Amino acid sequence: MSTRARGAAKTAAIGGVVRVSFDGRPLEASPGQSVGAALTSQGITAWRATRKGERPRGLFCGIGVCFDCLLTVDGSANQRACLVEVREGMEIEGSCREDPSEETGGRA
Amino acid sequence: MNQGSDVLVIGAGVIGAATAYFAARQGLSVTVIDKGLPASGTSSACEGNILVSDKELGPELELTRYSLGVWHQDLGEHKKLWEFESKGGIIVASRESSLASLNRVMAVQTGYGVAVEELDQDALREAEPHISREALGGASYSEDCQVQPMLVAAHLVRLATEAGARFLADTPVTGFLRSGSSSSGSSRSGSSSSGSAANGGRVTGVKTPRGDFFADAVVNCTGTWAGELAALAGVSVPVLPRRGFVMVTEPLPPMVHHKVYAAEYIDNVGSSDAGLQGSPVVEGTPSGTILIGSTRERVGFDRTVSTDALSLLARNSTALFPFLKHVKAIRHYHGFRPYCPDHLPVIGHDERAPGLWHAAGHEGAGIGLSAGTGKLLAQALLGQTPDLDLSPFAPARFGELPASEPAHHSTSPQSAEHREEATA
Amino acid sequence: MTPPIVSADIAVVGAGPAGLAAAVAAAESGATVVLVDAGAQPGGQFWRHRPETVVPVPDGQGHHGWKSYLDLRARFDAARHQGLITYLPGLQVWMAQQNQPAQGDDAGFTLRTTPTVAEAASDRSAAGARTVVARRLVLCTGGYDRQLPVPGWDLPGVMAAGGIQAFIKANGILPGKRFVIAGTGPFLLPVAANIAEAGGKVLAVLESSSPTTWLPHLRAAAGVPEKALEGAEYAAVFARHRIPYRTRSIVTEVLGSGSLGADHASGVRTAKVDADGSVRPGTERVYEDVDVVGFGWGFTPQMELPLSFGVETRLDTDGSLVGVVDERQQSSVPGLYLAGEVTGVGGATLAVLEGLAAGTAAAGGSALPQKTAASEKTTARHRRFAEAMHRAHPVPPAWQDWLTPETTVCRCEEVTAGEITEARESLGARDARSLKSFTRAGMGWCQGRVCGFASACLGAGPGASPTAESLSSAAKRPLAAPVGIGELAALDADYEDPTNSLLKGDRA
Known about the structure:
heterotrimer, A: alpha+beta, 5-stranded mixed sheet, two-stranded antiparallel sheet, 2 helices, 7 strands, disordered C terminus, C: alpha/beta, FAD/NAD(P)-binding domain
């Protein structure tokens, strides 16, 4: 049960390519890649700004410890880019979450 | 180590820090000792409230209003040091019956000069756009404020030392020094006065692993441990711990603008249930986290983490602010609020042990009441008539120490164990 | 809505070398086992590999001890097929508790979990979460790169050394083109080797200590021949790819200007240091056109779950806070076993040995395998080797001098070194706990995982190393992972008792 999301790449990959979007732009990733790897390999190395200094942030620890690489995946805010595997059709959004009350559904 | 002071403050939480600050600013020589660091007890495990809205009418409300003035005037220049926020409080009613109760309370409070304004459903939503659709209305208390309590304690200690006070960390009290007779005058010499008969004469200082400290006045500001310390001097100050859990969310953009809590408690003010209780208290902080309080349990110093308590906080807070369902908690902490059976603090000289003073037992209101308590106590220590009558808070109101009371040492070895986790 | 309960004789947390070994050993001793792991597939950080959905048979390239993994994995899969191991991947434990003893009996443990990765937005009620109940608990939560802040380390392009390696292992690609790896410890070598073998350019590996510090410890190293072999392999890789290995060298600043702009690492400023880490004047050097900088200063064991039980701890040779265990890996809490880095950072081979011992002991009690004496000897050899490595690669005492007041220490809450110094000097903050209170260092999303060690050092003051108490206050995390408030609200619905909402509010 709990592995079903991670197994999705198996069926979604078309010709070895997973199509996702980042802030509305289409992006191609490889099956099995993490969102962080997919972005970084496209030259996108920062996708979040810090609250105080608005400093850019991307991958740091790479293993789910530092929470620096947070982004929004299919409407779920504050997911760790280093841990989420790309899925066909995934909508990825950078920056901090705006308003959690508007996040309650409809999107997926 | 044998030098004496006019005032020896035991405990560097907010109460002790404020007492030391005002006493030092009044020109008294002050020594502050703590078994650990400043703000290691309840001061670091609470929400930093300065509230008018939830006070019982009578001495507590009067002390609150006095203290509020001290925060704004005497301490106004330091507001930025401790993130003072005049955010205002809102009590929300979600049932007709509690709305009616709230309206009655508001009418009485207005009569006592509390600044309270009724909020209809629209006004409530304007003030708190993310409040539950179930909310029927509320009351707005513009005087309610919030501070970062650890910064209050730490900076007041620092400011007190700049005014001449001395601070020593890691200095637990192991016993009291008593003079030979209760009519003893000066205690400065310290030569023949280190007898420690439990009910000896005048309290002239304390014993610690770092040596003896002498003072004309010894002030017990040890919060939850005040009863144990008083027992060392042979007097009863029945301060008990009441456990409270607070949950902290991930940092968010501003979503909750006031301190928001539910009116339903008014229906049941007199509860003396020892079991797990909770009502939603939700507020944002300058750092973006939202604090979700709080439970109350009388379980002694039990540090067992309770998923029941966390779950109760989650259910109550999401009922008030449904968006919280989609927010993550990243931390929780709990503290032990010091309370007395009559829910009033103990402030003033203890005539049962001359030379010993107390300022403790402020329950969940200690941060807000600290400024006023410190200023009033400094006035009393100087021999002045305090701005506010302290007799309702007199320590002797609890009578003599029962013979069976265990006068075991209180403040030393378990200090690390009793430490609280830091708050938001 | 309360997560379904999964019960077993033994619960194991972590599916890295120690956890896999513990689960396998326990199952082979006849116990039923639940293995909870944050990762999506077995292997942990050390044996992290491409998703098996994409690469069903990983070749183990770039891995050490891969045969050991394949062996454990085969036994793990066999035990799963026998129904002895229930494998729960993708779940993080947010709270672990000792059950209340009902009849004076040892009542066991309960683990509360939450999905590591959110399900789709329409279904985010922690559908995959489980509550695990077991008589014995084996915590194999591993560790992560220890970090020391340095000016510019918060720029994108700066990564944990282990993060670079994880990126390569999990994705089969590189996070950049031109790398500088810096810090201390033998782990920098495989990271650089992995980069080079994957086609990246390693401009330099900067090691703050010196090879001569190895000499007194050679005897311990010689006792572990496979480590000598590993060393030889790395030497060959370094020679083949012409990777400069510069000892007594550090990065003093990550530069953030140049071709990639001010918002990305573009180079590093380096310097030679004395044995204590003091920068030698006039040794400055700049590496340009660097797009990834990797830092690693040893490892920090992931201690929040052991600490939540109040286990006895100690300071290890490398300055880390670790759990105290007996020869059977049992902690000071009866029924709670620890294995792997949480008992002392020592690498995968040692972690496997400890995991096997813990799993066997947790499952059986007295019936230890016959090869115990031999494996105890091996364990002791590996511990000696680890200790020698720790002594040869200390955190340089003078590292605090590398900071400027503006250097970010806490990345989450953006707390600077200057703010921390101010809190120490004027407010008396002297440990990680008081620094948290006064500066918010360690209060953000990661809850001090990244800055905890550095904060504890800064609280202790220049040149000082942190106490166990300070490290413990940095590593205590009452929630071991973020958990949805909606998930919490759904727990234990028996508290729906309406009177609860009527009671007096806490005026905290």
